[in-house]
Amino acid sequence: MLIRNRKTKYYKGGWLCILLFLSSCGSEITIEPVSVLGEMIHPNDNPSSEAKVELGRLLFFDTRLSSDNSISCASCHVPEYAFTDRKPLSIGVDGGVSMRNAPTLLNVGYQETVMFDAEIKSLEMQVPVPIKEHVEMNMRIDSLILRLKKVPQYRELAKKAFNREIDAWVLTRSISAFERTLISDASQFDQFYYHNDPKALNASEKAGWKLFSEELYCTTCHAPPHFTNFQAENNGLYMDYGEDLGRFRIDFDSLEIGSFKVPTLRNIELTYPYMHDGSLSSLEEVVEHYANGAQGHPNQHPIIESVNLSESEKQHLIDFLKSLTDTSYMTYFR
Q1: Over 80: is that where the pLDDT of 31 sits?
Q2: What does each C-alpha distance from 27 to 23, 137, 244, 282, 306 come to in angstroms?
Q3: What is the pTM of this model?
Q4: What is the C-alpha to C-alpha distance for residues 36 and 279, in angstroms, rounded to an integer?
């Protein structure tokens, strides 16, 4: 439990601490449970509400968002798979193949940018991208709005949540509001590290965490609690990145060739295959990639170097990564 004062500072403590703090401070504080991930910031123009989330959830699972009524947001972001689809590249309408692997949407509300280019600044701005993309949902927004206006439930919820007819604003704000409710913050690692439960991790998982954080310095890019630095980095996956040059396509800066946003490692056990193109199928392959020092691309992050790991050390790392799994969010999707 954390205590928050009006200046939004946070203090660790138990219920006894809370009661003592209350008795000394009177009405100067409020008490609320805060996720180990911190406080989520909602846009000023899109504060959360139950009505928004309800509408956004219905839209997220609705195949009418695609041109041929076959693909919904959930087609590529499946709850059981930590909101990924376990395909190297997602499949859209008419068998179209997307450019990149579908990332998890869990905890996406905390991200500073979305998508692998680390360019789009908000969920509201991201929502129309797959809808309009011809190999994904291939739907014109104006045509989609006309389609959705024919659904009585959507008309009612739009009025309730936004006091307006369903339109592009309602579409983007409601789906974003729903996506911000997708939280995963109760892994075994969280119990061990943030809730001070030494029994939450076994010996192999603890050894893996020590390797990860203190010896290999993986936290440089995958820092807790989010296990990402939210930045675009080159991890040396290829010497030649072919047609997908990563963030280079945004700034046309040659130093950004092969740079993709560092993904979160939370629930990584569930989100295979890995990398921006889904080219590595297992955690074993991922560990080997980094242990071998990657491919040595000129833009490769300098911390990635060849390291001699024993088979048991590799297993420790994998066991630690699996301790980041938390499926408690599935309570709402069964």
Answers
A1: no
A2: 9, 51, 55, 52, 56
A3: 0.89
A4: 31
